[in-house]
Write a structure and sequence with these properties.
By secondary structure, the protein is mainly alpha-helical. The chain has 3 helices and 2 strands, in the order E-H-H-H-E.
Amino acid sequence: MHTTITPVRPWTYPREGEDLQSIARREFPERPLEEAVADLQSWNLYLVFRPAPAMLTCSDIVFTGPPAA
């Protein structure tokens, strides 16, 4: 049995050394930076509330769109 999973919301992996600001610049270059970062934070609360000084890793999934309604 072969199953293909279709993503229901867009996402990306962080590149080495990236934070939410650099992901916002990469994924949403046309949007104001503060607005794009705020959206990323609201869509990725599990990353925002990590204990400091935790950083993003290259294996984290960062959602770049809101959850499906």
